TrEMBL record:
Keywords: Cell membrane, Lipoprotein, Membrane, Palmitate, Signal. Residues 1-23 form the signal peptide. The keyword Chloroplast does not apply. SUPFAM superfamilies: Periplasmic binding protein-like II. InterPro entries: Bact_solute-bd_prot1 (IPR050490), SBP (IPR006059). This is Uncharacterized protein. The keyword Transit peptide does not apply.
Amino acid sequence: MNMRFSKKLAFGAIALASTVVLAACGKGSSDSGKNSDGSTDLTFWTFVDGQGTFFKDAAKAWNKSHPKQKINLKVSVLPFDQENQKLTVALKSGSGAPDIVDVELGQAAIQLKGTPQYYSLNSALKPYRSVLQKSRLDNFTKDGKTYGLDYHVGEVVTYYNTDLLKKAGIDYTKIKTWADYTKAGEQLKAKTGKYMNELEYAGMFQLDSMVAQQKADYYKDGKVDVNNAAVKRALQMQHDWIYKDKIARSAVGGNLDNDQFFAEMNKGNVASVTMPAWYMQRMVAHMPKLKNKVAIAPMPVFQQGDYQTAGGGGTGTMVTNQAKNKKLAAKFVVWAKASKGQAYKIWENLGFDPIRTDIWSTDRMKADNDYTEYFGKDIFDIYSKLSDQVHVVTKTDSFAPTINDYILKNTLPSTILKDKMTPTKALDTAQAALKKQQSNQ
């Protein structure tokens, strides 16, 4: 789940603890840690109200199917920053942490530094690994141990406003490469005055996905490598779209996951956006005028052999080392997301592409819901064809947050927001600065 949208949802949710008791409450507990009715108390923190609701429902379903392992799940929805602050203090002090917690991908890189204060999910994952998207497990894996399980794959696609493109005589199915995309953008601008897209300078989804689709990264052999040819190629193309080709502009609000940009898309001022699958939820919720006017397509590529997708965003549900019953908590977390029935609910209730990909081709994924009514019933036909191409740039290395921060504070503002530096110069400058920081660690 994207951090900025998560913050927005969390602040709009019931701010602090929303507590639910999901088994008949037994007063008092035994020496085994169980309540008198045999149930076990577990606490869960999240920063998204919808994810809190998902786990409340999951706990009810768990209790029905696991009557001898019932749990009382107490769910707390906190603002993103507050959750991270409280969690950091609790993990460092050794007390006060929840049993289970949602940790955004970027924060996971920080939380997993040094000796992880989380419980490995490896044992609980054994029955499910073969049907789960490996790249999403890798995001939360350190030294062979997987500590978090994501809600979604976050498969990146390009969403086209077909109504707007048709007015310019453009067939989106003919767009196969970024060169094709650029030409289509020039035609669109000439005939309608509209932009083909907007570019993030306060977000990394576009740059990350265009780097990842080239099977590249910001690292090489564990060392920072932000000025490699693939990164330069991606940033140069984005820069050219704004300052040379004139088919794009810097994103209103800085990124593509805010109300300002939603309004631009909804008004038909922008013809496309390249974002992860979870962006479907944003379109359904915030762009009602585009219903039945948006096509989901593979990302254009730079050249033959590139991937047509990537992975974007992510939130891992993790079990802390302070959990009262770590084994039970881990078993519940994995079951809640990886069991077949629960994986369907991730799509039906949250609008995410489930990490369990073997269900993507089933009839149930085509059943009527808000998303199939908006985009059509073939959504997962497209995602399934791309599922073996989901490469993700490294986000959980301990130095990853430093790289992200530097690019967001310096590189993108100087090349996308303003034409202050060439992409090559900006990335060479970033490489020198980051290499020095990494060597001093």
